[in-house]
From TrEMBL:
The name this protein goes by in its record: (2Fe-2S)-binding protein
Annotated GO MF terms: 2 iron, 2 sulfur cluster binding; metal ion binding; oxidoreductase activity
Keyword terms: 2Fe-2S, Iron, Iron-sulfur, Metal-binding, Oxidoreductase
InterPro entries assigned: 2Fe-2S-bd (IPR002888), 2Fe-2S-bd_dom_sf (IPR036884), 2Fe-2S_ferredoxin-like_sf (IPR036010), 2Fe-2S_ferredoxin-type (IPR001041), 2Fe2S_fd_BS (IPR006058), Beta-grasp_dom_sf (IPR012675), Diverse_Oxidoreductases (IPR051452)
Pfam families the UniProt entry points to: Fer2, Fer2_2
Residue intervals of the 2Fe-2S ferredoxin-type domain: 1-77
Length: 151
């Protein structure tokens, strides 16, 4: 089936089964490797993209269900990795292994588009991505730094 998608501001048509998860369209069909596979069931958040300003787990969103959505991947935030959340991540040295970080950055970007100065409770509620290295203190600090433009 031909599926028309808007990814990072560009319209693209892919031919995939209609139930193919968006994650595999991004990674395998479009060769956009920034969005990671983690668990495959929408729990870990490594595959998070932004769809119509909402953090969305791309492993559980069928390509056919993504038609009409404005999808942003980690590649679409900035060509030079200097988007404000990415910069906070770099300046505060958030990642260790880095595997979860693209999904985490996407979730945080979506949160900060809705709440310019989130409380710790909002962060706990909205950022449900899992970091297997446990850099949560640095993640929280980077969220606050990005929100406060201290970076």
């Amino acid at each position: 089936m031909k599926v028309n998608l808007k990814i990072n501001g560009a319209l693209t048509t892919v031919e995939v089964d209609d139930d193919t998860p968006l994650l595999w369209v991004l990674r395998d069909t479009l060769k956009m490797k920034g969005t990671k596979y983690g668990c495959g069931i929408g729990q870990c958040g490594a595959c998070t993209v932004i769809a119509d300003f909402q953090a969305t787990r791309s492993c559980s969103l069928a390509a056919s269900a993504a038609v009409g959505l404005d999808i942003t991947t980690i590649e679409g935030l900035s060509r030079d990795a200097d988007q404000f959340v990415q910069k906070a991540w770099q300046d505060l040295r958030v990642p260790q292994c880095g595997y979860c970080q693209s999904g985490m950055i996407m979730a945080v970007t979506a949160l900060l588009s809705k709440s310019s100065d989130p409380t710790d409770d909002e962060i706990d509620r909205e950022i449900t991505n899992i970091c297997r290295c446990g850099t949560y203190e640095r993640i929280r600090a980077a969220i606050h730094a990005a929100a406060n433009n201290r970076i």
